């Protein structure tokens, strides 16, 4: 793998904790009208945890970008809650990485699903974007 310091293998895990702040609430983001953890914020926590799961294994100049999210938001969490998010790399198909993700408040599962990311060369990725911007 040209993009990694060592082989990426299924089973690599990362666990992180996040505090639910005002900017994470559904009514603040207009994704709902109650003051609970918003689904977009839960997904953000999941994506961040998955990204950092493999970031240190990637060679300099490489990162991952999110391309798909398939999660269920199962239960609410209030302002101030500490959310534990787990990401586990379960599939590697070339540059495509698939993670099993879950979010927990206290001992309760509040969200779970799959998250897909692709390994990209940052410089090439941004050069391609700039070229597309100039073409339009």
The total count of helices amounts to: 3
- The strand order across the widest sheet is 1-3-4-5-2
Shape: globular
Number of β-strand runs = 5
Assess the beta-strand content as a share of residues: 35-45%
Helix content: 25-40%
The overall pLDDT, averaged over residues, is: 96
Q: Would you list the SSEs in sequence order as H and E?
A: EHHEEEEH
The CATH homologous superfamily is called Hotdog Thioesterase
Major sheet attributes: 5 strands, antiparallel
Structural write-up:
Helices cover 26% and strands 40% of the residues. The protein has 136 residues and is an alpha+beta fold. The chain has a single domain (13-135), classed as Hotdog Thioesterase (Thiol Ester Dehydrase, Chain A, Roll), CATH 3.10.129.10. The chain has a five-stranded antiparallel beta sheet. The protein is globular. The mean pLDDT is 96.
In short:
The chain is α+β, with helices and mostly antiparallel strands and 136 residues long. It contains three helices and five strands, in the order βααββββα. It has a single domain (13-135), classed as Hotdog Thioesterase (Thiol Ester Dehydrase, Chain A, Roll).
List keywords for this structure.
136 residues, alpha+beta, Thiol Ester Dehydrase, Chain A, five-stranded antiparallel β-sheet
List the helices and strands and how they pair.
Blueprint: E1 13-19, H1 26-29, H2 39-55, E2 62-73, E3 82-93, E4 96-105, E5 108-121, H3 122-135
Antiparallel strand pairs: 1-3, 2-5, 3-4, 4-5
């Amino acid at each position: 793998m040209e993009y990694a310091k060592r082989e990426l293998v299924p089973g690599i895990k990362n666990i992180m904790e996040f505090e639910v702040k005002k900017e994470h609430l559904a009514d603040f983001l207009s994704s709902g009208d109650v003051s609970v953890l918003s689904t977009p914020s839960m997904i953000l926590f999941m994506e961040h945890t998955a990204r950092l799961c493999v970031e240190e294994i990637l060679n300099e100049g490489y990162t991952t970008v999110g391309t798909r999210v398939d999660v269920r938001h199962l239960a609410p969490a209030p302002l101030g809650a500490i959310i534990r998010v787990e990401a586990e790399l379960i599939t590697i198909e070339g540059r495509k990485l698939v993670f099993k993700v879950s979010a927990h408040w206290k001992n309760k599962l509040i969200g779970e699903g799959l998250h897909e990311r692709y390994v990209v060369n940052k410089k090439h990725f941004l050069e391609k974007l700039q070229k597309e911007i100039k073409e339009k």
